[in-house]
Amino acid sequence: MDYYPWIEAERLDLADFLDTLTEPDWAVTSLCPAWTVHQVVAHLTLSTRTTLPDVLRGAIRARGDWERMEADAATERAARFTPAELIAQFRETAGSTRRSPGAKPLDTLNDALVHGQDIAVPLGRERTMPLDLAEAALGHVLKSPFYGARKRFRGTRLIATDADWSAGQGAKELRGPLQDLLLVATGREARAGHIVG
After folding, report:
1. Rg, the chain, Cα only
2. Which of 18, 67, 83, 140 is 20–30 Å from 77 (CA)?
3. Rounded to the nearest 5 degrees, what angle is found at the Cα of 135, between the Cα atoms of 131 and 136?
4. 9-145-50-132 Cα dihedral, nearest 10 degrees
5. Is 113 in contact with 129 (CB distance < 8 Å)?
6. Coil, strand or helix: which one is 160?
7. Whose CA is closest to 81, among 31, 46, 35, 121?
């Protein structure tokens, strides 16, 4: 399936959302630990710009620590570019099919969806995920070894309350909107009061 029209539409919608942020919003801590909104947006601009040599250099500098490598790259880029410049960069590559080495198209979609929530939730802003996109991203996250969701949800059945969707097996159940299940599956906290179980 060609996910790139979905990815482009989600990126452009997120860019429009970013245009509405105030100057203080950019300094707010996101759902990503120790990352500001500014750094999250800087990270988003890297997905179409990171090359294999960039990854190798970053991994060496971070001594193999993937999260540290990503944080260093986002911090450096946020220091180089203003919010307006980053939004422009993000928007101009919205239709790009380039992605970080090793990433699949659904990882790219997941990035736009989840990082949009990383920004919106701590700002108290509503940003609803399209159900079909959230379902595709969540299905991918649950199968991918990268996110750790298989281990996190061992023995747990996930049940969407806003769509005819469920996954997993076990005595435990986790119920909530698809977008909150996706947040939990990627290691974030769901929006307050949206997950039961």
Report:
1. 16
2. 140
3. 120
4. 0
5. yes
6. strand
7. 46
- At residue 38, the pLDDT reads 98
DSSP β-ladder status, 156-160 and 172-176: parallel
Q: Which tokens in the block code for residue 120? A: 């919106």
Helix (H) or strand (E) holding 140: helix 131-143
Is the separation of the CB atoms in 174 and 126 below 8 Å?
no
Distance, C-alpha 153 to centroid of its chain: 19
Q: List beta partners, residue 36.
A: 29
CA distance 172 to 12: 38
How many C-alpha atoms does 60 have within 13 Å on its Cβ side?
A: 5
How many of the other CB atoms lie within 10 Å of CB of 5? 9
Distance CA 42, CA 83 (A): 8
Bridge-based pairing of strands 166-167 and 156-160 is: antiparallel
For the entire predicted model, the pTM comes to 0.91
pLDDT tens-digit series, residues 77-96 = 999 999 999 999 999 999 99
> What are residue 174's DSSP bridge partners?
158
Q: Can you say whether the dihedral through the CA atoms of 26, 27, 31, 32 is positive or negative?
A: positive
Any idea which residue has 């630990």 for tokens? 33
